[in-house]
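Kindly inspect this chain:
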Amino acid sequence: MEEAVNTCDGESDGFRRLPVALTIAGSDSGGNAGIQADLRAFHMFGVHGCTVLAALTAQNPFGVGGILTADADFVAAQLDAVLDVYAVSALKTGMLSSPEVIEAVADRLTCQGRILKVFDPVMVATSGARLLRDDAVGLLKSRLLPLGTLVTPNLAEAGVLTGRTVETPEEMSDAARVLADTFGCAVLVKGGHAAGDCAGDILFDGERVYRLTSPRVTEPLSTHGTGCSLSAAIAASLACGKTLLEAVAEGKAYVYEALRTGAYVGEQAAVLGTPARLPLERVIVEPVGAA
């Protein structure tokens, strides 16, 4: 059964209203990841996207040539400008590379309890470039992640956050529980980089553990930006009023279809596709344990 991508809009007093999602992340000059990927996901889910630029990057699918971190006061000013006017229902964070930027974001979000928050603890780019300074990891853990609705580490990031090896489904489940207990929020441990015919993620929502799997796309043209796309799609779905489990499933379907429909944009450069539908039938959700 085909399901169209969520249009997620409504009317009030005869005027069309759109849900609003916010991304706080870095700009990807190649348009594959970061703010650009987030806005693409927001658009496909039918939500209005607001942006706070935390960094500029000089990058393409093969590497990051440079990073210019935004001034923390300017990051705070962007957040004030958005939060003062726009009815943000959900937000996501991506690359927050410096302690000062993390502090600025945490300061502004502390009193925004009504906004659902998806934190993608971006530490290393797909190309291997380090995107989070060592002195920022502690602040990320102490100031920002405890404010989250959902934290979405990949295997390597889950390892850094827990201080243990995270590779197998059992280790993923254990890490999700540990991180949920540490930060007081739901945790999605992404297993896309693990081996196997299926791409399996583990979600612990505070009560139950779920395994979400989708077929692995063999030899995708590009995987650059999948993490950004997933967290943005989840935030957009939450902004549309979906439950956390529904939003994670929709986000996973979005990324699967983006991988499946990748396209070349240069002699060697390729990008994720822009899904025209959410193939939810390709995502299997299985409860695997209780709290």
